[in-house]
Amino acid sequence: MFKELDPILHSQLRLAVMSLLISVKEAEFTFIREKTNSTAGNLSVQVQKLKEAGYIEVNKQFKDNYPQTTCKVTPKGIEAFENYVMALQEYLQVRKQ
Amino acid sequence: MNESEKELSSEESLKLINRMIHEAKGYFHESGLGALVYGFGVLLCSLLAYAVDVKMISFPFSPFYLLVPVFFVQSLIHWRENKMKKAKTFTDETIDYVWTGFFLSAIAAFSANFAGKTYVTITIILFLAGFATFLTGMIAKFNYHKISGIICLLLASVSFFMQDAIIYLLLAITAAMVWIIPGFILNMTFKKQQYAR
Fold first, then answer.
1. For chain B, how are helix, strand and coil distributed in percent, rounded to 5?
2. Which residue segment(s) compose the domain that A75 sits in?
3. Chain A: nearest CA to B102, how far in angstroms?
4. What CA dihedral angle connects B15, B18, B23 and B24, to 10 degrees?
5. Residues of A with Cβ-Cβ distance to B197 under 8 angstroms
6. A72's torsion region: left (phi>0), alpha (psi -120 to 50) or beta?
7. Which of A4, A16, B75, B106 has the largest CB neighbor count within 10 A?
8. Segment A25-39, tens digit of pLDDT
9. Tell me, what's the ipTM?
């Protein structure tokens, strides 16, 4: 029986954001936007969805008088990401057989 | 369905994950300036200490005390560069811990100087520098640091047989290998990265 793929992660931009954040301790919003080649508006919406799911933590603060948003993956997010990758691998193995 | 909500096939998902992890790991924001300042500081102090020891010149205090302001300048550069970073990677954090450990151990080893064991202090510092450099190379997967770390450890072993003024020249070579050359490499890569933007 296949594990169901997490619908929160199974979308292009949200998966890209999670894959970036899983590899770093924390990252600024501008860094994520640059690496994912997305627009600020679209990224904000997807970041909000990941935050609501409890997969990432979003911190807003001021740095040199400019607003700065940093994102960080949570333990729940790490677990969800690991489960997602495992489920993907299962799908691929079955397809190879 | 917009692009962000687009469902991916298993292969596409794995490719995307790989690409993003690779992007994040490839990120660095290090001008190499801190390493250059510290490296030239150690190089200058070592050469001065050698000149004083062979009585070529006289100096009112141990030249290594000049490293105190150098250390503050280097720390300031490091702090400013950390502030500019858009992402904090686990690699950067681990390397920072390694070099903080090095500096604390080097300061502790410096106490041997007050007990009149000047040359032994340099041997210990060479060992510490070799160890920290090798670890940095392993963590960052940077072959230059792995090799220079091993060479530095060999110099540290050789220094046991050179407990005289020559040991300062070994420290000068180490400064060039461990801080100055990598500092220039980092600086060139950093400049290339800046031009590419």
1. 80, 0, 20
2. 12-96
3. 23
4. 140
5. none
6. beta
7. A16
8. 999 999 999 999 999
9. 0.84
Cβ pairs A/B, distance under 8 A:
86
Mutation target among A12, A28, A33, A81 for the B interface, most CBs of B within 10 A: A12
Q: What is the CATH number of the domain that holds A17?
A: 1.10.10.10
pLDDT at B118: 85
**What percent of the residues of chain A are helix, what percent strand, and what percent coil, each to the nearest 5?**
55, 20, 20
A35 touches chain B (CB under 8 A): yes
Residue B81 β-bridge partners: none
Alpha carbons within 13 A on the beta-carbon side of B60: 1
Please indicate, yes or no, if residue A59 is contained in any of the structural domains.
Answer: yes
pLDDT tens track of chain B, all 197 residues? 455 566 678 888 889 999 998 888 777 777 889 999 999 999 999 999 999 999 999 999 889 999 999 999 999 998 888 888 888 888 889 999 999 999 999 989 988 878 888 899 999 999 999 999 999 999 988 899 999 999 999 999 999 998 999 999 999 999 999 999 999 998 998 888 777 76
**Do the chains contact at A15 and B16, CB–CB below 8 Å?**
yes
Whether B59 is in a domain gets the answer: yes
Domain assignment present for A16: yes
Residue B13 in domain: no
Would you call A23 and B89 a contact, using CB atoms and an 8 Å cutoff? Answer: yes
CB within 8 Å: A20 and B20: yes
Q: Are B158 and B170 in contact (CB under 8 A)?
A: yes
Query: Which among A31, A36, A92 is the nearest to B87, CB-wise?
Result: A31
CB of B13 less than 8 A from some CB of A? yes
Per the structure, the count of domains in chain B is: 1
B16 CB neighbours in chain A (<8 A) are 12, 15-16, 19
d(CA B27, CA B13): 22
